Amino acid sequence: MRGKTMAELKVGDTAEFSKTVSESDIYLFAGVSGDMNPAHINEAYANNTFFKTRIAHGMLSAGFISAVLGMKLPGPGSIYIKQELNFRAPVLIGDTVTARAEVVELITEKKMARIKTTCTNQEGKTVLDGEALIMPPRG
């Protein structure tokens, strides 16, 4: 299994991955990452925060971007070089997040692709955006 090489990529190429965030996803991410912030795992605590309920870890949504880049565009064999993230809105339990990647520039001399990354919820609201620098697999 191999992703798209530099020669196969084109500016404007896109790919997406969607997932509905469950309570289990949040607890599993907390366990794997070690981020036990009560804003994510303690409803009584979270009721007294700005959001008034538990929110998913921002990096969980960022992980969905990693899924798109690593599995779809460019795909298997890609090397993640850099990721810029801007957290725009909270993700709540039950939200369906769609991560999207779009090739915006091919840097042929460095064999890298600049990719616009976004995550939106089921209402089309942007919850995260940014930009990635990826080294596609070699042919």
What does this structure look like?
The structure is a single chain. The relative contact order is 0.25. The radius of gyration is 16 Å and the shape is elongated. It has helices at 23-33, 38-41, 43-46, 58-71; strands at residues 14-20, 79-87, 96-107, 112-120, 126-135. The longest helix is centred in the middle third of the chain and has 14 residues, at 58-71. It has 139 residues and is α+β, with helices and mostly antiparallel strands. The mean pLDDT is 97. The termini are close together. 24% of the residues lie in helices and 34% in strands. The chain has a single domain (14-135), classed as Roll (Thiol Ester Dehydrase, Chain A).
- Let me know the number of strands: 5
Q: Please describe the biggest sheet, giving its number of strands, its sense, and whether it closes into a barrel.
A: 5 strands, antiparallel
By CATH, the architecture is named Roll
Radius of gyration: 16 Å
| Cα distance spanning the termini | 12 Å
**Helix-strand makeup class:** alpha+beta
* Beta-strand percent range: 25-35%
Runs in which pLDDT lies below 50 for 5 or more consecutive residues are none
CATH class: Alpha Beta
Shape: elongated
Query: In CATH, what is the homologous superfamily?
Result: Hotdog Thioesterase
Mean pLDDT: 97
How many helix segments? 4
Main sheet: which strands, in order across?
Answer: 1-3-4-5-2
What is the assembly state of the chains in this entry?
single chain
